[in-house]
């Protein structure tokens, strides 16, 4: 099948949806002809696929470029990954499925990574999107009921998301070298991976670190002084007097480096304020390692090294971390990979083409 992905961000841009699309496209390219239309800031040389990084603005002019390129590609199916920060709420992206159906005359499927309909304007935008799609794919099961409530006549498949980060395969010697490099060889360590924003519960995590003895936090990403929220977190670190107990790696470009660091910690912690979701890439990256995980919400039972606490309950979080550090267990979980995701996509795509 000749498949074209339309996605706002793509590696080497920093975006979870972009990474997701890249890994999916890479897997599908083993048996299909894959094309990608994306932002001009993305790389155009990745894997066995043709990448057109031709979009500067995802507006009317960008939509015109997309349609021109699709006329050239002549795809059997177009998959739009939605939403994206790059789209900037441009109405052109909501009108695009209709234009593709009329001008390109191919199957159009959208993958929905977020779904919110708080306003009439948002519902109208979604209606413009959905009414011209042959199928919708969602990455959270709860989206099905939410979408069906607003738009009854839509065909929806749920496909569980996978991690962009593989299981670490480092040796014992490499593990010791990493622990020494980051000053973690003689201490307990808590791992956190992901972007820093107000929904991640990092204030609770920093407070917890301040109450633990012989424990350091390995913060796998960056805190930028030019970002107002990051600046607040950096000030909190100073106030709690834990600067020497937090190791900030900076942004890591290598998926292998991320997986290796997640694998050397004593426990990985994700105290999200809204609770962990099945689509949270940082959680899934940690899930692929053998290290215990503490997170928030009710989406996971306390099984196979996954422990859930109440969001914003710092005392409960502290208690659970102490328990897990004392147990010192490892867990050989089933690896989440894109081979199964790609298989499910092809089944959904084939069904969409028959509509």
Account of the 3D structure:
The chain has 355 residues and is an alpha/beta fold. It has two domains: 2-162 and 338-353, Rossmann fold (3-Layer(aba) Sandwich); 172-327, Rossmann fold. 39% of the residues lie in helices and 18% in strands. The protein is built from twelve helices and 13 strands. The chain has helices at residues 16-28, 60-73, 91-103, 120-130, 142-150, 172-181, 202-210, 228-239, 255-264, 281-287, 314-327, 338-353, and strands spanning 2-6, 33-39, 50-55, 77-82, 107-112, 135-138, 156-158, 188-193, 215-220, 246-248, 267-270, 293-296, 306-309. The protein has a seven-stranded parallel β-sheet with strand order 3-2-1-4-5-6-7, with helices on both faces. Strands 10-9-8-11-12-13 form a six-stranded parallel β-sheet, sandwiched between helices. The chain starts with a strand and ends with a helix. The model has no long low-confidence stretch (mean pLDDT 92).
